[in-house]
């Protein structure tokens, strides 16, 4: 997308994920064991999708059905299929609520596991799904790829599944990282992993630092970033260094055995998790208050313990809003516009409605109150220009 939309005067770069400050490479280590992993049996991977495949193997789910939400990214579905299991979908409404009756109706003789996704830090019904899993004698996989550091007020998300899956690079300024946490004794050993290519790790780290520079230094940072990127791409082209992409839509079996980079763990251990949670909550609440009455909020409050990954903004015309915000430098993301091809859109109209209408507005820990004020103003202007017909009350009811 970069460069496609003309960036307007007074635009500022607002990255969609947190960026790396150089000082984070050297600061003091705060925690040897990161929450929510303290004390658990945890294995680390280059990406969370690798952890999903490994979870299916160790829970012996191959050949069976896994009940998955119709509202999904797509790569987690690919990972389950790559592990030899059959994804079968259940209903989720446009407000991200699991239809538990529908889920229970779909449990059958071939069901081996229930798969719960906690969306953007907001807790899903883990307690009830744990009960259902126990009742029917199947496993529960809790996908917290979008919910690192979030709790349900009492427990960390990811505490109730037989296993839970985490992604680090969406919430922390790290170049890669996924985790698999076992909450029950596991049968079998985890596969041996190989180190990720050093060039990839360094290039992702540099790219995050350059984004940070551009975010803070404006036009000068932008010029510097462009020049360094050109140089780095030239080096990669000449030397034909292997590059492994992060954040793609598809599972690549060639990269399934890649482990996490030590640099990721080192940066992660230097973060103040409490500050991250507090900052994300503050930023989210600013948007909730400032956008009140202009766009319907998916959640009208922020429960204690929730660490929001982004602000889910409900819009009628996603492409128009995305283009406008991109022109102001705000990296809003089209949240899950596409469904996995094995999921029938006609059978799941509510999940499809969420796909058509929700985009992500950044509220991460790099963003100060003044920046959030500016973002809120820009989102309001964009909403007024692109969404003159929006009636927040009507949207909530479909
Ligand atoms: C719900 C969910 N699970 C798993 C993943 C896979 O994460 P990763 O990119 O670390 O493989 C994603 C990626 O976006 C996701 O949204």
Architecture blueprint of SSEs:
Blueprint: E1 41-45, H1 48-58, E2 65-69, H2 75-82, E3 86-90, H3 100-106, E4 111-117, H4 126-136, E5 139-144, E6 163-167, E7 178-182, H5 198-239, H6 262-268, H7 273-290, E8 311-314, H8 318-327, E9 333-334, H9 349-357, E10 358-361, H10 369-386, H11 392-396
Parallel strand pairs: 2-3, 2-4, 4-5, 5-6
Antiparallel strand pairs: 1-7, 6-7, 8-10, 9-10
Pyridoxal-5'-phosphate is lined by residues 47-49, 73, 75-76, 117, 143, 145-146, 167, 178, 247.
Explain what you see.
There is one protein chain. By secondary structure, this protein is of the alpha/beta class. The protein folds into 3 domains: 25-182, 3-Layer(aba) Sandwich (Aspartate Aminotransferase, domain 2); 197-243; 273-396, Aspartate Aminotransferase, domain 1. Helices cover 37% and strands 12% of the residues. It contains 11 helices and 10 strands. It has helices spanning 48-58, 75-82, 100-106, 126-136, 198-239, 262-268, 273-290, 318-327, 349-357, 369-386, 392-396; strands spanning 41-45, 65-69, 86-90, 111-117, 139-144, 163-167, 178-182, 311-314, 333-334, 358-361. The strands form 2 sheets. It has a 7-stranded mixed sheet with strand order 1-7-6-5-4-2-3, with helices on both faces. Helix 1 runs parallel beside helix 2 (75-82) and helix 8 crosses helix 10. The radius of gyration is 21 Å and the shape is globular. Residues 1-5 have low confidence and may be disordered. Pyridoxal-5'-phosphate (PLP) binds next to helix 1 and helix 2. Residues 47-49, 73, 75-76, 117, 143, 145-146, 167, 178, 247 line the site of pyridoxal-5'-phosphate.
